[in-house]
Amino acid sequence: MARAAGVSRLQVRAVGGVCYLVDLLAAFLVPDFGQKIHAFVVIPCAIAEISMVLYLLVKGVKVPAQGTPTASAGETTRVLGEQLL
Q1: What is the DSSP annotation of the chain?
Q2: Tens of pLDDT along 8-65?
Protein backbone atom coordinates (compact mmCIF):
# COMPACT_ATOMS: atom_id res chain seq x y z
CA MET A 1 0.00 0.00 0.00
CA ALA A 2 2.78 2.45 0.89
CA ARG A 3 4.61 1.73 -2.35
CA ALA A 4 1.47 2.49 -4.37
CA ALA A 5 0.95 5.71 -2.44
CA GLY A 6 4.56 6.76 -3.09
CA VAL A 7 4.22 6.21 -6.82
CA SER A 8 0.95 8.11 -6.79
CA ARG A 9 2.52 11.15 -5.09
CA LEU A 10 5.37 11.12 -7.56
CA GLN A 11 2.99 10.91 -10.49
CA VAL A 12 0.89 13.79 -9.18
CA ARG A 13 3.97 16.01 -8.82
CA ALA A 14 5.26 15.01 -12.25
CA VAL A 15 1.93 15.84 -13.88
CA GLY A 16 1.89 19.17 -12.04
CA GLY A 17 5.37 20.00 -13.32
CA VAL A 18 4.48 19.06 -16.89
CA CYS A 19 1.34 21.20 -16.68
CA TYR A 20 3.41 24.19 -15.56
CA LEU A 21 5.66 23.72 -18.60
CA VAL A 22 2.70 23.32 -20.97
CA ASP A 23 1.08 26.46 -19.56
CA LEU A 24 4.29 28.48 -19.88
CA LEU A 25 5.12 27.30 -23.39
CA ALA A 26 1.55 27.75 -24.62
CA ALA A 27 1.40 31.29 -23.22
CA PHE A 28 4.76 32.14 -24.78
CA LEU A 29 4.48 30.42 -28.16
CA VAL A 30 0.72 30.58 -28.86
CA PRO A 31 -0.79 33.30 -26.63
CA ASP A 32 -4.39 32.90 -27.84
CA PHE A 33 -4.35 29.14 -27.25
CA GLY A 34 -2.52 29.65 -23.94
CA GLN A 35 -5.34 31.82 -22.62
CA LYS A 36 -7.93 29.22 -23.62
CA ILE A 37 -6.21 26.28 -21.89
CA HIS A 38 -4.92 28.16 -18.84
CA ALA A 39 -7.98 27.41 -16.70
CA PHE A 40 -7.69 23.67 -17.39
CA VAL A 41 -3.94 23.42 -17.04
CA VAL A 42 -3.84 25.19 -13.68
CA ILE A 43 -6.04 22.57 -11.99
CA PRO A 44 -3.43 19.73 -11.96
CA CYS A 45 -0.78 22.25 -10.88
CA ALA A 46 -2.88 23.29 -7.89
CA ILE A 47 -3.58 19.66 -6.95
CA ALA A 48 0.15 18.86 -7.10
CA GLU A 49 1.06 21.85 -4.93
CA ILE A 50 -1.62 21.12 -2.34
CA SER A 51 -0.60 17.45 -2.17
CA MET A 52 3.03 18.45 -1.68
CA VAL A 53 2.14 20.85 1.12
CA LEU A 54 0.04 18.19 2.85
CA TYR A 55 2.82 15.61 2.47
CA LEU A 56 5.38 17.98 3.98
CA LEU A 57 3.05 18.85 6.86
CA VAL A 58 2.43 15.19 7.69
CA LYS A 59 5.68 13.39 6.82
CA GLY A 60 8.21 16.12 6.14
CA VAL A 61 9.91 16.39 9.52
CA LYS A 62 12.01 13.48 10.75
CA VAL A 63 12.25 13.56 14.52
CA PRO A 64 15.10 11.46 15.96
CA ALA A 65 14.13 8.63 18.29
CA GLN A 66 14.26 9.25 22.02
CA GLY A 67 17.81 8.78 23.32
CA THR A 68 19.49 8.97 19.91
CA PRO A 69 22.61 11.15 20.05
CA THR A 70 22.46 14.19 17.78
CA ALA A 71 25.12 16.73 16.79
CA SER A 72 25.35 19.84 18.94
CA ALA A 73 25.42 23.33 17.45
CA GLY A 74 29.18 23.71 18.00
CA GLU A 75 30.17 20.18 16.98
CA THR A 76 31.89 19.54 13.68
CA THR A 77 31.22 16.47 11.61
CA ARG A 78 33.97 14.11 10.50
CA VAL A 79 34.95 13.92 6.85
CA LEU A 80 34.52 10.56 5.15
CA GLY A 81 37.81 8.75 4.84
CA GLU A 82 39.17 9.98 8.18
CA GLN A 83 40.19 7.32 10.65
CA LEU A 84 38.02 7.14 13.70
CA LEU A 85 40.13 7.01 16.86
Answers
A1: -HHHHHHHHHHHHHHHHHHHHHHHHHHHH-HHHHHHHHHHHHHHHHHHHHHHHHHHHHHS--PPPTT-----SSPPPPPTTPPP-
A2: 777 888 888 899 999 999 999 999 999 999 999 999 899 888 988 888 888 877 777 7
pTM to 2 decimal places: 0.60
Torsion of CA 7, 9, 11, 12, to 10 degrees: 160
45 closest CA partner among 25, 27, 23, 26: 23
Amino acid in position 70: T
